[in-house]
């Protein structure tokens, strides 16, 4: 569960950075 949340947040962060 934690890994899943981190993966989703990482994706959102990556999209925001780009």
TrEMBL record:
**Source species, please?**
Mus musculus (Mouse)
The protein's name is WASH complex subunit 2
